C-alpha cells in the first residue's frame, strides 16, 4: 500500500488491490469473434498500400506486398473483437514483420483545436496536408488501448512464446501519449480487464503472457513444460543507467560477453509467476521514473525507461529422460523521453541540462536509425554506432538485431506541433526501413547432441594440438628431449660418415713429406686437449652410465623428468652405444700402430699431470649445445700442402735413449693401451660433435696415421723415433735403477718370463702374441735382432737393445780371456818358483840370487798389469763397471804374487796406474806377498 501512495505522488492515479489484480486475468477469444475477424478483414480496403517491408519474412523470408497488405489488414481489427476471442491460438496466423511501425494519434485535449492537419487516410497511412505517410498501422484518436494491444501486444505475446525476442518502442513528441499508450494510468493497471479500460499495452501483454503460460502448462499432454520469467526495469537519465527496481543502483554498465551475452551489470532482476508480480514491478519502477514539467506536459518524462522480461522455457516428453527443447526470448518495452524543441528556458538550467541530454540521446538514436535504415548490410557491425549512447547500446538487439521490433509513433493532433509530428512520421518511416533478423531462440535435443559432438571433436583436436605442440617445441618435457636426442643421434651418424671421407694419408706412398717440430708440437697439444677431455668424459660416464645420453640430454637444455618417451629414447641410445662399441672394436684393429706408439713412447716417456686432463664427450657437448654441420678438419700443413709422407725432426729423435725405455713396465703399457682405447673412443665420439672438436678428432686421426707412417719409415731406416705418445700414459713411468742395466743386458737375469723383450712391449703387443711368439710380425721385424745368450740359444730382442747386448757380451768375453791369460802366466810363474825351489834344494846353491831370472819375472808381471789396466780403463769409459771376477783361475797365491810383482813394478818404475784404491791396495798386498816369497827363496 505504501507503493500505491508513492504512485499517487506521481502521475499514476488510482488504487491497486489484490482483488483487482486477480481480475486482470486475460480472457479467451471465442470462435465466434474469429469469424468476425475474418469478415472484418474482408471488409478492409486500405487506400495506402504499405511499402515493401524488408522485415516481412513469413516463414521463409520477406513476403510480397500483397501478403504484407494482408497482414496489416489482419492486425487492423477491432480491439473489442480481439478481446472477445476465446483463445489466442485461434487467431489467424499472420506473417508478422520483424519491424513494425504503428502510428497513433491521441485525442485533442481542451487546449487544442479540433481542425488537425493530420488526418488518417487509411489503416496504415496518414496525411499532413498533401503529404502522405504509410506505415504498418495507423490508429487515430478514436483508437482504444485495446486496439493497440491487439495490434501490437497480441502478436508480441505469440512471438515471445514462440521464442522470438520482441521489442516495443514508443517514440513521439512530449505529451503525445507515449506513456499513456505503454503503461496507461496507474489506476488502470489494477483494474479489471475490459476493452474500455485505459490500461496500457504493457499490462495487457503480461496479462496475456502469463495467462498463456498457465494455460499451456495446464493443457500440456504428454509433455512437461516449464517456464521461467524474470523482469527488470531500468532508466536512462542523463546518459546514466538507473535501476528502477533499486534506486540506489545507478550508473550501471552494459556488458556483452560470450557467456552471458548482452546485459546490464548488477541490474535487479525479479522472477514473476503472476500478473500481480508484474504490476508490482511496473508500479514500483514507474513511480521511480524522473519526471518534470514541460510546457505541454506537467509530468513529462525526462528519461528513457526500459522494461525487460526474459522468458525461458523447457519442454520434454514426460516419458522421455532426454532434454527435449528449450526456448529463451526477451521482451523489451521502451518508453522514450519526450522530444521537444526550444522549450527548455521555461524551467531553468537543470531542466535545460536534462532536456539537452534527452535531445542528445534522441539525436544519437535517430542517427543510428538513419544508419540502419540506409542499409546495415553493407556495413561492418563495428561501424554501427551502437555504443554512441546508453540508449543505442541497450537497443542493439532491438534495432537491426535478433528481435521483432514494433515502434509506436505517437503524434499530437495539435497543429502547433505539426513540425514534431512530421518529424515523428519521418522517423517512423526510417524505422520501417530497418531490417532485423529475429530467430527463434530454441535449443533442441538434436542441437544438444550436435553440440556434444562438437565439444568432443574440439577436445580431441585440442589433445592432438597439444601433442603436436609437444612434438614441435618444446618445453618443455621429456618427449622433446627424446626428440632432440634422436635428432642428435642422426647428426652423429652424419658426422661419423663425414669423418670417413676426410682425406687420408697414403701410407704406402714412397713420397716423402717433411713435418717440422712445430707441427708435431701442435698435434701433440691437440692430443693433450683431447686427452684431457677424455678423462672428464670417463668421469661423467661412470656417473651417468650413459655418457651419450647424458650429454645429449644436457645439450638439449631441456632436462625434464624422464617419461616413457625418454625410456624408449634411452633404448635407442643404448643401441647407438652398441654401434659405437662396434666402431671402437674396428678401431682397435689398428692397435698395432698404437702398440708401436707405446713402444716408441718408452723412449721419450715423461710424466703427465693427471689433473690437466678433462672430459671430451661431455664437455664438448656442453660447449656445443647446438649441433651444427661439422667442418672438415685439416691436419697441420698436410691438408694444405697435400704432402703424404713424413720426416721427423732430429731434435725429437735425439731424445730416444734406450735406457729410458725401461721405464715402461707392463702396467704402464697396459694403462697406455687403455688410454689408447680411450683416445680412440674419444676420437669416435669427437666425430659426434661439430667443429672444432670434430676437426680436432679428424686431425688426431690423421696424426695417428702420420705417426704410424713415420714409425714405419723410421724403423726401416733404423732411425730413432722421438715422436711418441708418452703423454697418453695415465701414470708416471717407474724409475729405473741404473745399476740394473746389466740385468737388461744379461740374458740370464732378465726379469720377465714372457721373453727377452717382454718388458719392452705394451700390453697390446703381448696380447697380440708378439712377445711370446717366435714369429715376429712384419711390422716389428725392423725392430728385432737376434741375441745369443750364454747358453748359445738365440733370443729375439729389439734391435737397439740387442746391439748393446752383443757388444757387452763381446767385452765380457774379452775380460774372461784376459783373466785366463793372467792365470796362465801366474801359473807359469808359480811353476818357475817351484822349479827354482826344487833346483835350489837339489843343488844347494844360493847365496846370491839369479838376477836374470828375477828380471824376467818382473817383466812378465808388468806386462800382465798393463793389459789389465787397459781393460779396466775401457770399462770405465763405458761407464759400465764390471764386477770383479773372483773366478777359479785366480788362486790366492797367484793373486798375492801378482800384487807383489805389481808393487815391485811401481817401486821400480814409479808408474802411476789408474785403478781404484781398493784394487791398488789388493795389488800392493799381492806384490808384497810375492816379494816376501822371493826373499824367502833367496
Ligand atoms: N490516447 C489517449 N487517450 C486519452 N488520453 C491520452 C491519450 N494519449 C495521451 N493522453 C493524455 O495526454 C496526456 C499526456 O500524455 P503522456 O504523458 O502519455 O505523453 P508523453 O508522450 O508520455 O509525454 P512525455 O514524453 O512528456 O512523458 C496525459 O494526460 C494522458 O492522459
Automatic annotation (TrEMBL):
<keyword id="KW-0067">ATP-binding</keyword>
<keyword id="KW-0493">Microtubule</keyword>
<keyword id="KW-0505">Motor protein</keyword>
<comment type="similarity">
    <text>Belongs to the TRAFAC class myosin-kinesin ATPase superfamily. Kinesin family. KIN-12 subfamily.</text>
</comment>
<dbReference type="GO" id="GO:0007018">
    <property type="term" value="P:microtubule-based movement"/>
</dbReference>
<feature type="region of interest" description="Disordered">
    <location>
        <begin position="25"/>
        <end position="66"/>
    </location>
</feature>
<feature type="coiled-coil region">
    <location>
        <begin position="441"/>
        <end position="468"/>
    </location>
</feature>
<dbReference type="GO" id="GO:0005874">
    <property type="term" value="C:microtubule"/>
</dbReference>
<keyword id="KW-0547">Nucleotide-binding</keyword>
<keyword id="KW-0175">Coiled coil</keyword>
<feature type="domain" description="Kinesin motor">
    <location>
        <begin position="98"/>
        <end position="434"/>
    </location>
</feature>
<dbReference type="GO" id="GO:0080175">
    <property type="term" value="P:phragmoplast microtubule organization"/>
</dbReference>
<dbReference type="GO" id="GO:0003777">
    <property type="term" value="F:microtubule motor activity"/>
</dbReference>
<dbReference type="GO" id="GO:0055046">
    <property type="term" value="P:microgametogenesis"/>
</dbReference>
<dbReference type="GO" id="GO:0009524">
    <property type="term" value="C:phragmoplast"/>
</dbReference>
<dbReference type="GO" id="GO:0007112">
    <property type="term" value="P:male meiosis cytokinesis"/>
</dbReference>
<dbReference type="GO" id="GO:0008017">
    <property type="term" value="F:microtubule binding"/>
</dbReference>
<dbReference type="InterPro" id="IPR044986">
    <property type="entry name" value="KIF15/KIN-12"/>
</dbReference>
<dbReference type="InterPro" id="IPR027417">
    <property type="entry name" value="P-loop_NTPase"/>
</dbReference>
<feature type="compositionally biased region" description="Basic residues">
    <location>
        <begin position="30"/>
        <end position="43"/>
    </location>
</feature>
<dbReference type="InterPro" id="IPR036961">
    <property type="entry name" value="Kinesin_motor_dom_sf"/>
</dbReference>
<dbReference type="GO" id="GO:0005524">
    <property type="term" value="F:ATP binding"/>
</dbReference>
<feature type="binding site">
    <location>
        <begin position="172"/>
        <end position="179"/>
    </location>
    <ligand>
        <name>ATP</name>
    </ligand>
</feature>
<dbReference type="InterPro" id="IPR001752">
    <property type="entry name" value="Kinesin_motor_dom"/>
</dbReference>
<protein>
    <recommendedName>
        <fullName>Kinesin motor domain-containing protein</fullName>
    </recommendedName>
</protein>
<dbReference type="Pfam" id="PF00225">
    <property type="entry name" value="Kinesin"/>
</dbReference>
Amino acid at each position: 500500500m505504501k507503493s500505491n501512495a508513492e504512485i499517487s505522488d506521481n502521475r499514476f492515479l488510482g488504487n491497486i488491490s489484490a482483488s483487482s489484480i486477480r481480475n486482470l486475468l486475460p480472457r479467451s477469444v471465442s470462435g465466434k469473434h474469429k469469424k468476425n475477424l475474418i469478415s472484418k478483414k474482408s471488409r478492409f480496403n486500405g487506400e495506402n498500400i504499405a511499402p515493401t517491408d524488408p522485415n516481412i519474412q513469413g516463414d521463409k523470408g520477406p513476403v510480397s506486398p500483397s501478403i504484407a497488405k494482408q497482414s496489416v489488414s489482419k492486425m487492423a481489427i477491432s480491439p473489442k473483437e480481439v478481446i472477445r476471442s476465446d483463445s489466442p491460438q485461434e487467431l489467424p496466423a499472420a506473417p508478422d514483420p520483424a519491424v513494425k511501425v504503428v502510428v497513433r494519434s491521441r485525442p485533442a485535449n481542451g487546449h487544442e483545436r479540433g481542425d488537425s492537419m493530420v488526418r488518417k487516410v487509411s489503416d496504415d497511412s496518414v496525411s499532413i496536408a498533401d503529404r502522405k505517410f504509410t506505415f504498418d498501422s495507423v490508429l487515430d484518436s478514436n483508437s482504444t488501448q485495446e486496439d493497440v494491444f491487439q495490434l501490437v501486444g497480441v502478436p508480441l505475446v505469440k512471438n515471445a512464446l514462440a521464442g522470438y525476442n520482441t521489442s516495443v518502442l514508443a517514440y513521439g513528441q512530449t505529451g503525445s501519449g507515449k506513456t499513456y499508450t505503454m503503461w496507461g494510468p496507474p489506476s488502470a493497471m489494477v483494474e479489471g480487464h475490459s476493452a474500455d479500460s485505459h490500461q496500457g499495452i504493457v499490462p495487457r501483454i503480461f496479462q496475456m503472457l502469463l495467462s498463456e503460460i498457465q494455460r499451456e502448462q495446464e493443457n500440456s499432454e504428454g509433455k512437461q513444460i516449464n517456464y521461467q520469467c524474470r523482469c527488470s526495469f531500468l532508466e536512462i537519465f542523463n546518459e546514466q543507467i538507473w535501476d528502477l527496481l533499486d534506486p540506489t543502483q545507478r550508473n550501471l554498465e552494459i556488458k556483452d560477453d560470450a557467456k552471458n551475452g548482452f546485459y546490464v551489470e548488477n541490474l535487479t532482476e525479479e522472477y514473476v509467476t503472476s500478473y500481480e508480480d508484474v504490476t508490482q514491478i511496473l508500479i514500483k519502477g514507474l513511480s521511480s521514473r524522473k519526471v518534470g514539467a514541460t510546457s505541454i506536459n506537467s509530468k513529462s518524462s525526462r528519461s528513457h525507461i526500459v522494461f525487460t522480461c526474459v522468458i525461458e522455457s523447457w519442454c520434454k516428453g514426460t516419458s522421455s529422460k532426454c532434454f527435449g527443447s528449450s526456448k529463451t526470448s526477451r521482451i523489451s518495452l521502451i518508453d522514450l523521453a519526450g522530444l521537444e524543441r526550444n522549450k527548455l528556458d521555461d524551467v531553468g538550467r537543470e531542466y535545460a541540462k536534462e532536456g539537452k541530454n534527452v535531445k542528445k540521446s534522441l539525436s544519437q538514436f535517430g542517427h543510428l536509425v538513419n544508419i540502419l535504415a540506409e542499409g546495415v548490410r553493407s556495413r561492418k557491425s563495428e561501424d554501427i554506432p551502437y555504443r554512441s549512447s546508453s540508449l543505442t547500446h541497450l537497443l542493439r538487439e532491438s534495432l537491426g538485431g535478433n528481435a521483432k521490433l514494433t515502434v509506436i509513433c505517437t503524434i499530437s493532433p495539435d497543429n502547433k506541433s505539426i513540425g514534431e509530428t512530421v518529424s515523428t512520421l519521418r522517423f517512423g518511416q526510417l524505422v520501417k526501413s530497418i531490417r532485423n533478423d529475429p530467430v527463434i531462440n530454441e535449443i533442441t535435443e538434436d542441437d544438444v547432441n550436435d553440440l556434444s559432438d562438437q565439444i568432443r571433436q574440439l577436445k580431441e583436436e585440442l589433445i592432438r594440438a597439444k601433442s603436436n605442440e609437444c612434438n614441435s617445441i618444446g618445453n618443455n618435457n621429456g618427449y622433446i628431449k627424446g626428440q632432440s636426442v634422436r635428432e642428435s643421434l642422426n647428426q652423429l651418424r652424419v658426422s661419423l660418415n663425414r669423418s670417413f671421407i676426410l682425406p687420408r694419408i697414403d701410407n704406402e706412398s714412397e713420397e716423402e713429406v717433411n713435418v717440422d717440430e712445430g707441427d708435431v708440437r701442435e698435434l701433440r697439444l691437440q692430443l693433450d686437449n683431447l686427452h684431457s677431455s677424455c678423462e672428464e668424459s670417463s668421469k661423467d660416464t661412470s656417473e651417468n652410465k650413459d655418457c651419450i645420453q647424458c650429454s645429449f640430454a644436457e645439450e638439449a637444455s631441456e632436462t625434464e623428468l624422464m617419461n616413457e618417451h625418454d625410456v624408449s629414447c634411452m633404448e635407442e641410445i643404448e643401441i647407438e652405444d652398441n654401434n659405437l662399441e662396434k666402431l671402437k672394436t674396428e678401431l682397435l684393429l689398428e692397435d698395432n700402430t698404437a702398440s708401436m706408439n707405446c713402444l716408441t713412447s718408452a723412449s721419450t716417456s715423461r710424466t703427465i699431470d693427471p689433473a690437466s686432463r678433462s672430459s671430451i664427450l661431455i664437455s664438448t657437448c656442453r660447449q656445443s649445445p647446438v649441433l651444427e654441420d661439422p667442418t672438415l678438419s685439416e691436419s697441420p700443413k698436410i691438408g694444405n700442402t697435400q704432402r703424404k709422407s713424413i720426416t721427423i725432426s732430429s731434435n725429437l729423435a735425439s731424445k730416444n735413449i734406450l735406457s729410458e725405455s725401461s721405464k715402461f713396465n707392463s702396467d704402464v703399457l697396459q694403462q697406455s693401451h687403455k688410454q689408447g682405447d680411450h683416445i680412440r673412443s674419444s676420437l669416435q665420439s669427437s666425430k659426434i660433435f661439430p667443429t672444432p672438436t670434430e676437426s680436432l678428432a679428424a686431425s688426431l686421426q690423421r696424426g695417428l696415421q702420420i705417426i704410424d707412417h713415420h714409425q714405419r719409415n723410421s724403423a726401416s731406416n733404423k732411425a730413432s723415433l722421438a715422436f711418441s705418445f708418452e703423454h697418453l700414459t695415465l701414470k708416471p713411468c717407474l724409475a729405473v735403477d741404473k745399476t740394473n742395466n746389466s740385468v737388461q743386458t744379461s740374458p740370464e737375469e732378465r726379469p720377465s718370463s714372457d721373453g727377452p723383450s717382454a718388458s719392452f712391449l705394451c700390453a697390446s703387443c703381448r696380447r697380440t702374441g708378439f712377445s711370446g711368439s717366435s714369429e715376429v710380425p712384419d711390422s716389428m721385424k725392423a725392430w728385432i735382432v737376434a741375441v745369443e745368450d750364454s747358453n748359445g740359444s738365440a733370443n729375439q730382442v729389439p734391435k737397439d737393445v740387442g746391439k748393446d747386448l752383443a757388444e757387452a757380451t763381446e767385452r765380457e768375453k774379452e775380460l774372461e780371456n784376459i783373466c785366463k791369460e793372467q792365470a796362465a802366466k801366474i801359473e807359469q810363474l808359480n811353476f818357475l818358483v817351484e822349479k827354482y825351489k826344487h833346483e835350489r834344494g837339489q843343488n844347494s846353491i844360493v847365496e846370491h840370487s839369479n838376477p836374470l831370472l828375477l828380471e824376467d819375472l818382473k817383466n812378465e808381471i808388468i806386462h800382465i798389469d798393463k793389459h789389465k789396466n787397459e781393460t779396466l780403463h775401457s770399462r770405465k769409459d763405458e761407464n759400465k763397471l764390471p764386477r770383479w771376477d773372483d773366478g777359479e783361475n785366480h788362486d790366492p797365491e797367484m793373486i798375492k804374487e801378482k800384487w807383489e810383482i805389481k808393487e815391485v813394478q811401481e817401486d821400480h818404475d814409479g808408474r802411476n796406474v789408474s785403478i781404484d784404491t781398493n784394487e791398488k791396495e789388493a795389488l800392493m798386498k799381492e806384490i808384497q806377498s810375492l816379494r816376501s816369497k822371493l826373499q824367502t827363496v833367496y
